[in-house]
């Protein structure tokens, strides 16, 4: 790969980062030992395998450097001194004999939170992988950290999927086939644009500016000067990180959706709203006068878009109805609000702030990032994102993938980010929080599981679907 300018939104993520607010996303992938009679795979062997596969992904060999033009811009360029084992490392967990799994899951989750706290080194390709294992050949986990400038959620999945056995072998066969085929000649083209291209470009820029003005006005209207709300969600950032995980049964979620109507994501957002309410009540907090607002990212990526295309995001703003006591009414409120968001489309409204960022020049991102970072708190209280994963079973070195817990970054002024993914018939939830603002994050994770159980218990018997219309 040659040199490639960072797209405006990628540049925004790059400049939004501070030491206390690293802008990397991640995932904690948990693996079971290889099934018998396959030989056991050591953690050191997994490190070697990860290193070889990561080194074969061209995007992971690129670092960010400043450029003279455009002013304030930056570009991706190949790291000539690339050493994959500066990025792929092993971490050994002490064993806890009092826990059923030797304390592995609790230890891996705690350690992952500490590792997510550390910013990526900016002079290197902005990613890291850690193999987290015990002393024996038992379960292990791989923590993946990718800077948000490198990839959005969907592109992170596409890049990270290259480490798995099934996808790595497909990629190797594809590369072999490509080398065997003769390249087609490319007809010469003039670098000078024709009149239609000039007219199309001008019309596109006018549409972009018009959209940017519209989104900008929506952002201003939606911003809140009164920042009083749930204390844990509006606490001053400490720069510390804590991670917790939860799991929901996928079939149970679908059963609820068939009755409530809407989409699976609507149900999951309703579960998040109910979990937040339970958590606040259990903490003895007074429910906030205004429901907390969630920023719900929406991908604008088209099928077949390559990894070099950068972030393609918009978002919806959604009030999470924590003040509503009826779980089914919460689902109805969420579904109605999301239907309204979808009818308006991902390019309109205050949630489309990423679209606005995509229209700004490089210099604006370089100098305006500190102001923009502080403004996030005025727009939303919590990030809730869904990350799509491959449906097929995956493995690493013959060890089956058991679960993937996605992790989203925390913007300045934010204390909680919630990411969800579905794999193996289970919905896995990764919760990332400011460690001092939310020391009881595990309680919130359990509240999500409790909320799903209550919704199941309240399922009407023999009633037609779409009760929550």
Automatic annotation (TrEMBL):
Keywords from the UniProt entry: Acyltransferase, Glycerol metabolism, Lipid biosynthesis, Lipid metabolism, Transferase
Pathway info: Lipid metabolism; Glycerolipid metabolism; triacylglycerol biosynthesis
Catalytic reaction equation(s): an acyl-CoA + a 1,2-diacyl-sn-glycerol = a triacyl-sn-glycerol + CoA
UniProt keyword annotation of Acyltransferase present: yes
Coiled coil: none
Organism domain of life: Bacteria
Domain O-acyltransferase WSD1-like N-terminal: 6-267
UniProt cross-references to InterPro entries, sorted A to Z: Acyl_transf_WS/DGAT (IPR014292), O-acyltransferase_WSD1-like (IPR045034), O-acyltransferase_WSD1_C (IPR009721), O-acyltransferase_WSD1_N (IPR004255)
EC nos: 2.3.1.20
Residues annotated as domain O-acyltransferase WSD1 C-terminal: 310-455
NCBIfam families: acyl_WS_DGAT
Similarity comment text for this entry: Belongs to the long-chain O-acyltransferase family.
Protein name as catalogued: Diacylglycerol O-acyltransferase
Higher taxonomy: Bacteria, Bacillati, Actinomycetota, Actinomycetes, Kitasatosporales
